[in-house]
Amino acid sequence: MNSNEIDPAQEQADLRLRRVELVISVLLRGGVIVSLSLVVFGTVLSFLHHPSYLHSASDLQRLASPGAAFPHSPHEIKEALQAWQGQAFVAAGLIVLIATPVMRVAVSILAFLYQRDRVFVLLTTIVLALLLLSFVLGNVG
Amino acid sequence: MSPLSFTLSLLGISVVAGFIGSLLGLGGGIVVVPVLTLLYGIDIRYAIGASIVSVIATSSGAAAAYVRERVTNLRVAMLLELGTVSGAITGAFLAGILRSRWLFVIFGLVMGLSSLAMLCRTKEYNEPVAPDAWADGLRLHDRFYDESLGQEVAYRVTHVKLGLFLMYLAGIISGLLGIGSGALKVPAMDLAMRLPIKVSSATSNFMIGVTAAASAGLYFARADVHPFVVAPVALGVVLGATAGSKIMGRIDSRTLRVSFVAVLLIVSAQMVWKGLQ
Questions:
Q1: What is the pLDDT of residues B108-143, one digit of tens each?
Q2: Residue A70: phi, psi to the nearest 5?
Q3: Which of A25, A124, A133 lies at the smallest CB-CB distance from B67?
């Protein structure tokens, strides 16, 4: 086949690929915006809940010292969110942030599926599995 | 200091750190960790947790723009992520075992080396690259549109196995110290695998976010990601980096580099000193 001719199947695949790239771009920006909004909201909320944070030096000691208590497991965060604790909203925002690149890898699997590239579908799935594993490993270790 | 002045001052410093980081191409993490530990006396594990999360934020923000420009080599990125992600998990595990003083020492040394590396300007090579069976088999060769040349540039990739190994090491450093370690990733792609510099930095930036997510997951579950410390850092670094990327082309980064290298070297020596005390 003449290489100058446009293969319709190829063109279709390129179009789909372009769409996946657009989704990725929106996903990344959206993830960062949603996450930082939650972080700001949570921070403001915790200052509203604790007026002494505006002047008390001992509060900072307690907050930032090693072994400080804050919600970090999914269960604790869920409970703290229901109690409208500021730090829980910040933590939820940070989870969204950490999940953003993971979602990006997941969407990239689609891009390689459209290209019918089995090797890279497999490679990308392994990367995704490693990422998910890291969350599990942290909870165990 | 009250929690309010802590949050506000840290927000301000993080904006500056993100700004400088994006101008120097270093990322905010390498500035944020010394600020938190040396200036605020925060536990280095919280500092690393805060840094790794802000690394994800800046990388994702910048990658959103890069994807549209289509400079990133997605295939190379995904392949090398096998190396960086497993490295990051190894590094985050090591960070849990190592004593804090060693984290200070290693951080200081890596920071010093990355600052020195900024002085060496990388140049493009034009000689033909050695054929590499992996690069052929995985179809890693690609082309990109070079804006400064106004034309498409085709390039060939080589030394894939060496690249993967170097990326594993870069991943360990990233997971151990909470930095993006772009200073290690770019040379691995540019010098070893012979990708063009622009493709190397765009691809490195893409990979930084994914690498950081692997170790951030571990840090989060281990309760080293402290919401109160991370909030001003993540927000500040993103704001600063966004501003930095907007004026990047308009200033002479060469003079900026030389003047900041001196500062960074002094700070890295302080980190090493604090660890050895």
A1: 999 888 888 777 755 566 667 788 988 998 889 988
A2: -155, 155
A3: A25
B264 touches chain A (CB under 8 A): no
Segment (H or E) for B154: strand B151-155
Residues A138, B218 contacting (CB under 8 angstroms): yes
Lowest mean pLDDT among A18-32, A85-99, B6-20, B96-110: A18-32
Instruction: Determine the average pLDDT of the residues in B41-56.
Output: 92
State ipTM: 0.88
User: Does residue B226 sit in helix, strand or coil?
Assistant: coil
Interface contact flag, B217 A91, Cβ < 8 Å: no
Q: What are A17-73's pLDDT values in tens digits?
A: 778 878 888 888 899 999 999 999 999 998 998 888 877 778 787 777 777 778 878
Does the beta-carbon distance from A43 to B67 stay under 8 Å? Answer: no
Phi and psi, residue B252, nearest 5°? -80, 105
How many whole angstroms separate alpha carbon B206 and alpha carbon A127? 14
DSSP B244-273: HHHHGGGS-HHHHHHHHHHHHHHHHHHHHH
Q: Which residue has the tokens 């279709």?
A: A12
DSSP B151: E
**φ, ψ for residue B34 (rounded to 5)?**
-60, -40
Residues found in chain A: 141
Chain A residue closest to B36 (CA)?
A64
- Suggest the residue from A97, A108, A121, A139 to mutate for an interface test with chain B (most B CBs closer than 10 A): A97
Q: Are B75 and B140 in contact (CB under 8 A)?
A: yes
Residues in B 88-147 with any Cβ partner in A closer than 8 A: 88-89, 92-93, 96, 138
